[in-house]
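[Meeting: bench + compute handoff]

Bench side (C.D.) handed over the final construct sequence. Compute side (W.E.) agreed to return the predicted structure before the next meeting so the bench team could plan truncations. Sequence as handed over:
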Amino acid sequence: NDIAALLREDQLLKELKSPHTPWIGFTRFTDLTPTFRPTYRFDIGTNIYDTSEKHRIPSYTDRIMYWTKSAAMKQKIETTQFQSIESVMSSDHKPVQWIGSIPVRVVVPEKMVAVIDTLSTRVATLGLERVSSAKTTVSVASLDFGRQSFHHCHAKRSVVLTNLGDCTASVRLFRQSSETSHGLWLRVSPSSFDVLPGSSVEIAIESVIDRTALNWIGGWIPGKGLASVQIKSQLLMHVVNGPLHTIECTIVVLPSVFGNTLENIVRLEGMPCLEGYAKAVSVSASGSSSFGTTNTTTSNAAAGAVTATAPTTDRPRLPKELWFLCDAVFKRGLKFPNLFTEAGSQEACSEVMAFLDAHSEPLPDTFPIDAVASCILMFLSSLQDPIIPGSQYQNALYSIRIGGKAPLLFVHQQLPPLHANVFLYVASLMNFILRPQYTASNELSPQIVAQVMAQVLMPRPQSSIVSSGSGGGGGNGISGGPAGVTSQQVRMT
């Protein structure tokens, strides 16, 4: 009956607070937090929790959530009663009941006639052209989101738009897609709205550094002495029949092995990510450097000679950060219940990711193993190029249909060597975890592992995030995540 202790471990509440939730827009909902006992799972016909051989853990699976378009409307929602009905015993769930009041906008004929008469009088007095011209101001012209990284990226700022005119102002926000990041790190709510004369609307702007927002990171190479990158993106507020407001948003992005490319990660060799990006590595005439030996090739571009460096076989062929994560699971997590199927807390995952970026050593035993397992999935799913690239997705499916040795031949012959090494390493760990002496405790099966790993190793190819054509508006819609976002946490349902 300790409801507060149960809610501290509630998955829904954790997901609502997570900046990396795959359910874009989900965090705008408000949860009616339970004040009663968990509603699942009961023995049918009783008020007794599961006594079967599975002994399922009681949980809050029956929830009521709500969403409102404006904060003012949200404040008007009142709860009279919120309870579970334990007298219903026909199911293994207990129904949840909410009784309260919700504001509903309706047309009052008398007031509508009065408003029309008032507007008609203004039109006659001021002139139609003056009434139809919107006059708006914004509270700030620039926003600074500070220093952010993949695992620390939930900074929030706000802008207030005020309507000083005599007519309703219709506003829509866009990203200006002329710079490298296309402004994909910005999340705005609301992205379109109307403002009555004399009223103001507060616009919430949030920074989210995820795989999509880092689609430019392949050009940010370690060893160039560039410890951070400053990005300036423009938010455009278009007011119909009114001014165009520009908000300059600035963020300083710190490097991370999460959301990066495999090629950049292995370039770090034995050096921590933050140190590797901050250090300027000089390449000698023989091609050797403190990062190891490189082969140097030169090609001519239109703007002049461009020198590119490519790793040789002397470079490590497996990211050390992935090894540290898998090693921790191998040493401490083989018998951990619900391994890879229940995510660790967002706070613990962020601590693991921050440690891997700052250190080049095995993970301390103090990190929870469920957070370590979640970070393995996060590492794989956030790679800019999936382990099985989109161009090879259909070939991978074809090899699976053929069966036999075809999938192994596909990995060895068609995947890039680095991708193949990572695939085989992860597959070997999964094969070890599925040994009978461990599955009795970790509750995994080949089917579960296949489902979880397929989503992070070979995600279904998505369309381009930023439209290069003239149709549809491409990546300028900013109320939710842009198309092509890969889920950053995998949860079994």
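W.E. noted at the follow-up: Confidence is low (pLDDT under 50) at residues 284-288, 292-316, 464-477, 479-493. C.D. will use this when planning the next construct.
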